[in-house]
Write a structure and sequence with these properties.
The protein has three helices and seven strands, in the order αααβββββββ. It is α+β, with helices and mostly antiparallel strands and about 180 residues long. It has a domain of about 80 residues: SH3 type barrels, CATH 2.30.30.830. The strands form two sheets. A four-stranded antiparallel sheet has the order 4-5-6-7, with no helix packed on it. A three-stranded antiparallel sheet has the order 1-2-3, with no helix packed on it. The longest helix is centred in the N-terminal third of the chain and has 18 residues. The protein is elongated, with a radius of gyration of 42 Å. It starts with a helix and ends with a strand.
């Protein structure tokens, strides 16, 4: 029994002496002592937040600031009905599937004999040849004239009162 207890005591002593090597942690202890030796700082309290005040938007029924002002005198006058209507039965052309703002005039072509065509690029980067009489844009826009620097278009848009009005638009030549 004595030899077993001596063996156990010897192995415990050996294990404890192996764990006692502090030389490898001297630099870490020195760094910790340096940090602990510095004066203690004060942490600022977080800023107090202002109480949120709910805002009641009361201008929802007013005219949008992006709309043109309406002349009250003209709006109250009975308007004559015009005979302007889009032709809903004609087949749609390719460029009528795009908004006119997304189309760009990029050039012109002239045939011998004087007929001038405009080149229009759609948002899908397709290039189309158009001339007066072709339709363009989503608002029934009909090309009225083509010059080397622009395309004149007359669109037919709703007047907001179950009628239609004509609106001139222009596509200007873009430098690309």
């Amino acid at each position: 029994m004595r030899s077993v207890s001596f063996l156990v005591l010897f192995s415990i002593t050996l294990l404890l002496s192996a764990c006692g090597g502090d030389a490898q942690f001297d630099d870490l202890r020195a760094r910790m002592d340096d940090i602990k030796g510095k004066p203690k700082g004060r942490i600022e309290p977080p800023p107090e937040f202002k109480v949120y005040k709910a805002f009641s938007y009361s201008a929802a029924a007013l005219r949008s600031p992006f709309d043109r002002p309406v002349d009250v005198e003209l709006a109250s006058l009975p308007q004559q009905r015009s005979n302007i209507k889009p032709d809903l039965n004609r087949p749609k052309e390719v460029l009528e599937q795009f908004g006119i703002d997304s189309l760009a005039m990029v050039g012109t072509l002239e045939r011998p004999g004087g007929s001038l065509f405009a080149l229009v690029r759609d948002p899908d980067q397709g290039l189309h040849r158009v001339r007066p009489g072709n339709y363009i844009g989503r608002n029934f826009g009909k090309i009225t004239s083509v010059t080397p620097s622009k395309i004149d278009v007359i669109e037919i848009v709703s007047d907001g009162q179950d009628g239609w009005i004509e609106r001139p638009r222009t596509l200007v030549l873009r430098d690309e």
